[in-house]
Amino acid sequence: MHCHWRDCQAWNQEGLPLSTTSNEACKLYDAVLTQYTGVYDDASVGGIATSMKAMLAADPNFVMGRVLTNGLDLIGTGRTINLDPDFKAAINTMTDMAAKQDITERERQHAKAIQMWAEGDTTGACHVWEDILVAHPTDMLALKFAHDSYFYLGYQPHMRDSIARVLPYWKPTMPLYGYLFGMHSFGLVETSLFSEAEKVSRKGLDINPKDAWSTHSLAHVLEMMGRQDEGISFLSTTVRDWTTCGMLACHNFWHWAVYHIEKGEHTGAVDIFDSEVGERCKKSGAMLDIVDACSLLYRLELEGVNVGDRWNDVFETCRPHTDDHILAFNDVHILMSCLGAKKKDVAKEMMESIREFVKNGKGTNRDVTAEVGLPLCEAFEAYDSGDFARAVNLLNPLRYKVLSIGGSNAQRDVFNLFLINAALKSEDKMHHKLARCLLAERKCLKENAPMTDRLTERAMALHAD
């Protein structure tokens, strides 16, 4: 892993000058960028949080240090300027510094992109980062911020092509070069180019076996191709490599559990939740870990597993975020925790908050929430109250729009499973036929799918009509 941090001169030589005279700030900027790209905490610099503080302490007027710090808060999707005055002040400070200082056009564009993201214009921020990459294709910060934002937006071809456009400009000797392959592979798997995605992810792992993003991408390939046994074997034999990357470890454990659920090995999935996913979610409070915990418990319940009181801890971790409305994808998972923990009063308050956001909010996620997020949440609310027909009628027309809430194909599959289960439980005979049609479609997409086979057997047993 890269650890020879670049100083002012090194950044200049790479054509990515940083407007600071502090070598320490430049080196720590590299350290933070590297940890973000590699999704791990480097103990030599005290981890990513400590190195961010040290970077700003080395030069409090370092605009790109502010860009990086604020950007990571945004990308984490756990803070919003609409509810957090300190965060709003931090964005304003960065914007003022960028306006007043003699910095490069690239740095000015970075500050603009972060301001746009903070104000809700996620798509606009991505356009700015792509402009930066045309002129500076080796700017990893622009590349990674765009990559992660495309993921949140459900812009799958963008996620793939953004990396492909810059690959020829990178050299194997450049710091962070190996991470390009995990990122490119993920774009490939999300656009159903599975064979190519597998080759590219394995190349990333050949360069760096501890590249958790390449591990993650290969886990997606094995999931989407119905290679559950290979997936379990792969993650179990490489666990010491990818658990060094704590920011993504919970998610890779989630993938491991999902393989078990597909196979009907519910005890294995519950054990992973208890030993890893649930504990990591509670400890980190990170939004990625939160949605993993919510999704895993909900999938288990759809399979008929009694998860006991496990929802309670997850709900407590979610509780501070019920009014965030940063991503519709987050909102629906947070709502799962409210319903799962039987906190119907909080669920009702959250739904009112979402409607208020749709009415008075602005930006990319407001529009996505209005069209897809709100009715999707209403479908989960209806299902929880036993109105399965309403759940079907709300979600079925939105099936091909759910992509817009972001997340991966594997993550959003919980909504396909939800719709099938709702249709099976509905009293409407047309919904029973719909369930069988959806299952036939599902089988065509992934032939080795034991869960689909179990659901098909259930459908035939429940409804001969």
TrEMBL record:
It comes from the Eukaryota. CDD domains: StaR_like. Keywords: Repeat, TPR repeat. The keyword Lipoprotein does not apply. Belongs to the TTC38 family. This is Tetratricopeptide repeat protein 38. It comes from Lingula anatina (Brachiopod). The lineage of its organism: Eukaryota, Metazoa, Spiralia, Lophotrochozoa, Brachiopoda.
